[in-house]
Amino acid sequence: MLTSTYPLKALCCSIEKELIETSSLLRVDLSGGYYDAGDNVKFNFPMAFTTTMLSWSTIEYGKRMGSNIKEARDAIRWGTDYLLKCATSTTGKLYVGVGDPNVDHKCWERPEDMDTSRTVYWVSSKNPGSDVAAETAAALAAAYVVFRKVDPTYSKMLLRTAKNVYQFALQYQGSYSDSLGSAACPFYCSYSGFKDELLWGAAWLFRATNDVKYYNLVKSLGADDQPDIFSWDNKYAGAHVLLSRRALLNGDKNFEQYNQEAENFICKILPNSPYSSTQYTHGGLMIKHPDSNLQYVTSITFLLTTYSKYMAATKHTFKCGNVVVTPNTIRNIAKRQVDYILGENPLKMSYMVGYGPNFPKRIHHRGSSLPSIAAHPQRIGCQGGFDSFFYSSNPNPNILVGAIVGGPNQNDQFPDFREDYSHSEPATYINGAFVGPLAYFAGIH
């Protein structure tokens, strides 16, 4: 996975055979899936979001991917194969994570050398997790749309499981953060609650089935939240853009409220809008959070390109106050973000590893920073990687081609320091959201 030139391959995979023994002595095969970032833990909440975004990218921009469409489908299937196992292995449980993050984060070792407990976590009717369950349903439903023509048998299984998992999320409502405690927080707490995931999951099931049942759920869940962000935690803006497609492309007036919600969101993003709540660096990068900011940039950029595509198809425009917004208005802001990430910035630094002449060399990632088995056959234990490799000022021995790191600070500066995980750590959900914009602009140019 460290030599590909295609960004999807940077979504680091869990390849070990994980047969987890639970307290009831039930052995469950939870092999596969993706580690979230530079660690050796599988957090299903961000993993499912990554899978949803990869699927949405393929749905919207698959025709622009050319021969890479197969790699896109393979990356999605790697995620959905694992999520299917998590949803169907045991009746009454949805597995939502593998590996104790509090133990894992005290180690710096290769995945091949892991000796930490591969603790398994789940939600159930007694310990609900509507957020992670509804996001899982969204991922499976979105993947159904990707595979329904190319693999009907697999797609039917995806849709059937998505419906079941969503029903579980709806019937047993509660946040997985409350159920899992320190296994979820502070790593991937559901800060926005679970209503956004219920809306997001219903929106994807409606997209997949056109079933009035899910339309009614969407309407009942409402669209009262007005975010200026889109991420693995907060899905409102994504749901609004997804649902707005019916209004813009199909002329369905029942969905005009989501059209308005999507435009309210965009008015908070555009720098020249009177309603903007988004800061930009001197070099032109959107700033939403001091830590791992590019995760928000790539996700929001995806929404900008997608909504501009919908607008262009119908010659639609709208206003932010007195500012007229055209498809080109949004497209230009999105392109500025893509170009910045790929190297058009004050440091001339590409934040996609391996792309261009200047890119991060000391990323916060175990597999990249530790020598390969071929170069160092001896085992590296839990603490063994810190002194020799983690704290070393040397560049990483393995170039994780295509991985996008957390990015620069609000002053356009990037120290390229391995210990600075908030800026130097790559994550699957940064890459997963960036695939769509890359395909979009590659198709245009």
Automatic annotation (TrEMBL):
Keywords: Carbohydrate metabolism, Cellulose degradation, Glycosidase, Hydrolase, Polysaccharide degradation. One of its GO terms (biological process) is cellulose catabolic process. The active site is at H364. Transmembrane segments: none annotated. Its EC number is 3.2.1.4. The keyword Hydrolase applies. It catalyses: Endohydrolysis of (1->4)-beta-D-glucosidic linkages in cellulose, lichenin and cereal beta-D-glucans. Residues 27-437 form the Glycoside hydrolase family domain. PROSITE patterns: GH9_2 (PS00592). One of its GO terms (molecular function) is cellulase activity. Belongs to the glycosyl hydrolase 9 (cellulase E) family. This is Endoglucanase. It comes from Lupinus angustifolius (Narrow-leaved blue lupine). The lineage of its organism: Eukaryota, Viridiplantae, Streptophyta, Embryophyta, Tracheophyta.
